[in-house]
Amino acid sequence: MSTLDWLLPVVYLVVLLLLVKPLGGFMARVYGGQRTFLHPVLAPVERISYRAAAVNPDAEMTWKTYAVAMLVFNLLGLLVVYLLQRLQGILPFNPQGLAAVSPDSSFNTAVSFATNTNWQGYGGETTMSYLTQMLALTVQNFVSAATGMAVLIALARGIARHTAQTIGNFWVDLTRSTLYILLPLSILLALVLVSQGVVQTFNPYQNVALLQPAIDANGNMVTEQVLAVGPAASQIAIKQLGTNGGGFFNVNSAHPFENPTPLSNFLEMLAILLIPAALCYTFGKMVGDTRQGWAILAAMTLIFVVLVAVAVWAEQSGNPALAALGVDQVQSAANPGGNMEGKEVRFGAASSALWATATTAASNGSVNAMHDSFMPLGGLVAMWLMQLGEIIYGGVGSGLYGMLAFVIVAVFVAGLMVGRTPEYLGKKIEAYEMKMASLILLIPILAAKIGTAVAVLAPGGIATIFNPGAHGFSEVLYAFSSAAGNNGSAFAGLGANTPFYNTALGIVMLISRYWLAIPALAIAGSLVSKKKVPAGAGTLPTHTPLFIAWLIGVIVIVGALSFIPALGLGPIVEHLMVFGR
Questions:
Q1: Could you tell me the sign of the dihedral formed by the alpha carbons of 112, 114, 116, 118, in that order?
Q2: Torsion sign over Cα 412, 414, 418, 423
Q3: What DSSP assignment string belongs to 472-536?
Q4: What pairs with residue 428 in β-bridges?
Q5: Quick one: DSSP state of residue 343?
Q6: Residues near 524 by beta carbon (within 8 Å), at least 6 away in sequence
Q7: Span between the terminal Cα atoms of the chain, in Å
C-alpha cells in the first residue's frame, strides 16, 4: 500500500474535525434564536414562512405535541411522494415519457425518502421523471434531514432545561434546520459540484455517437448511445449533506455525472460526515458544556478510525480468487492495486473503502463503489457500522440522539456498578429513561434480524437471492440492516425491487425511524421536568477519557452480542472460505 492510501483518511479526518467547531457553533446560534451572518437575508423569509403556515414561533410544545407534529408532517410528505410517483406519467418535466412507478415500488420509495433512508430499489434514470426527482425526492432530502435534526435539538433542550414542560417548537426547528443550515450549504456544494462536471439541466437525455461502434446481442451494429442527464447536482448536494444518500442515477456516486473527479469525490465524502460531526459540538454548546460534545465525538471518531483501517486494509490487500486467475492486484504507477472489482479506477480501492466506511457510519448510504463486490471483511465493516444503530456519527440528528441513548445506558450501568444513582449532566437517570433508551437500542436490532429471518424463509424472499450460500445470506442481512439503520446502501446482488422486499423493507424503515424518534422525544419530555442535581463526589464525569473508553465498550458489546451470530453465517464464514482455498 502506498503512503497516499493512508494519507487520504488522515487528511479527510483533519479537515472534518477542523470544521466541527465553526459549523457546530453556528448551528447552536441558529437553534438558540441568535443572530447570524445569514439573518439579514433569511430572517424575513423565516417570518413569512411562519405567517403563511399560521405558526406562532413563540409557542413551545410538550414532547407529545412535538411528536404528533413530527409524525403528521412526515406522513403527509410520504403521501405526496407516493402520489407523485403514481401520477408522474401525466405530470410535466418528464422529457423521456417515463410511466408511473408501480404501487409497491412507490410505497417503498416514499417510505424510504420520508424516513431519511433513501433505499432505492429502482434505477433513477429509467424510473423517475425530473419532476419526481426534484419535487418528491429532493424535497424529502431536505425535510427528512431537518426532522432528524429537530428531534435531536428537542432532546438537547430536554437535557439542558430543568423544571420545565416544553422542549421547543417542531415547526421552528424544522424551518431553521432547512433555511439556515441545509439550504445554504447545499447551494454552495451544488455550485462547486457543477464546476467539477456534475450535470444540472432540464434538457432531455442526449444521443451521442460511440467512439467505437459495437455489436449488440442480436448482431446489430450500435453506433450511438443515450446519455442520461438531468437536474442532478442540486440533489447530490443535499443527499450528502443531509445523510440521505439517494442517487440521481442508478449507480449513485460511482456515476461520472454525479461524481466525476477526485475533488468532487473528496467534497462529497466530506459532506457525508460534516453535519453529524458538527452537531456534537452544537449539543455541547446547548447543554452548557462543550466537553460533553467533544467526548461523544471522540468516541465516534475512535471507532471510525479503527474500522476505516480494517476496510482499507481488506480492500487494498486484494482478492486471492482473482490472483489465482492471473489478475494483477499489485499497486503500481499504472495500477491502483488491491481488489478493484466493482470500483472506479479514478478513485481506487482505498478511497472506495473510506467512502464505504463513512457512508455506513453516517446513515448516508450513497456509494462510489459496489459494496457487494467488497472483500468479506470490507463488507463486514460497512454492515456492522449499520448494525451498531447508525450512531458512529449517524444520520443528521438521528445519529446523535441514538448515541445519547448509549450514553444513558453507559451512565446507568456505571452507576449500578459503583452503587450510585446514575446521573447525566445533572439529571437523574431512572427507570423511565432506561426503558426509552432500551427501545432506541433494541428496536433496530430486532427489526433487522426478524426481517432477515423472514426473508430467508419466505418464498418471496428466497426467489431473488441470486448468490447461493454465505454471500447470498450477507446480501439479505445487509438489506435489512440498512433498512433498520435508515442507511439505504445495499449489497446490490439481491433482487430487491419485488413486492416482497419493497413491502418488508418499507415496514422496517418506518419502524426504525419513528419508533426511535418517539422514545428520544419521550426522554426529552422526562428530563426537561426534572430538577438539576449538583455534581457530588459520586457523580460520574462524562467527559473524561475513562468515560469515552467505557462508552466505546458498551457500544461494541451491544453490537457484538447482537449480531456476531448472524455475521458468522455471512461475511465471517465467507472470509474463511475465500482465504481457506
A1: positive
A2: negative
A3: HHHHHHHHHHHHHTT-----TTB---SHHHHHHHHHHHHHHHHHHHHHHHHHHHHHHTSPPPPP-
A4: 423
A5: B
A6: 63, 154, 155, 157, 158, 159, 167
A7: 24
Model confidence pTM above 0.70:
yes
Q: pLDDT for 310-332, tens place per residue?
A: 999 999 988 888 888 888 888 77
Q: Are 371 and 475 in contact (CB under 8 A)?
A: no
Q: Specify whether the CB–CB gap between 547 and 541 falls below 8 A.
A: yes
CA distance 359 to 29: 28
- The position carrying cell 463486490 is 373
Contact 432, 63 (CB under 8 A): no
Run of H or E residues at 26: helix 3-31
Task: Reduce the DSSP state of residue 332 to 3 states and report it.
Answer: strand
Q: Which three cell numbers stand for residue 61?
A: 410544545
State pLDDT tens for residues 208-234. 999 899 998 888 999 999 999 999 999
Distance CA 483, CA 120 (A): 11
* DSSP three-state, residue 423: strand
Residue given cell 443535499 in the structure block: 238
Query: What is the H or E stretch that residue 210 is in?
Result: strand 206-215
Residue 41 three-state SS:
helix
- Predicted confidence band at 421 (pLDDT cuts at 50, 70, 90)? confident
- Other CB atoms within a 10 A radius of the CB of residue 93 amount to 15
Residue 371 is classified by DSSP as G
- Contact (Cβ atoms closer than 8 angstroms) between residue 371 and residue 382: yes
Which of 305, 333, 302, 358 lies closest to 547 in space, CA to CA? 302
Closest CA to 455 of 435, 436, 437, 472: 472
